[in-house]
Design brief:
The chain has two domains: about 60 residues, no CATH class; about 35 residues. It is elongated. By secondary structure, the chain is mainly alpha-helical. The protein has five helices and two strands; from the N terminus they run ββααααα. The relative contact order is 0.06. α1 packs across α2 and α4 crosses α5.
């Protein structure tokens, strides 16, 4: 998912991107109020983590991904996706059952010149499996 949306010539940032910018702004204001850097400029990693209020693991992941983009191994920074838990199927279909279903559909098509309804296939399948 993108962190911004383009409306006309303006780019509207989503709330997460706006939060990061607000964190950096607050960090810079604190440094300006102190009239000095709170951390040495050469400590860019610590400064970035303090300014954006992210954890070091996130910093490492983004840095590694940015290197991949720079080297051409990736086309762009990825957006984490939510993994859905998919329910496991209640039953499994064997190759024999798949073959029986295919035969039922084929025979119906040959004799009736049309596609069978699901109810018909289920009834025929049960009668073939049970006998």
């Amino acid at each position: 998912m993108s962190t911004s949306t383009k409306v006309g010539k303006r780019r509207i940032l989503r709330s997460q991107a706006r939060d990061i910018i607000a964190n950096v702004l607050q960090f810079m204001k604190e440094e300006a109020a102190n009239k000095s850097c709170t951390m040495p400029i050469t400590n860019f990693k610590e400064r970035l983590i303090a300014a954006t209020k992210i954890v070091e693991r996130t910093y490492r992941d983004i840095a590694r991904e940015a290197d991949d983009v720079r080297l051409g191994a990736a086309s762009g920074l990825s957006s984490p996706s939510k993994k859905r838990k998919r329910p496991s199927p209640k039953t499994t279909i064997t190759e024999r059952e798949t073959g029986i279903t295919g035969t039922i559909v084929h025979n119906f098509y040959v004799t009736e010149k049309g596609n069978p309804h699901l109810n018909f296939v289920c009834v025929m399948h049960l009668s073939c499996v049970l006998y």
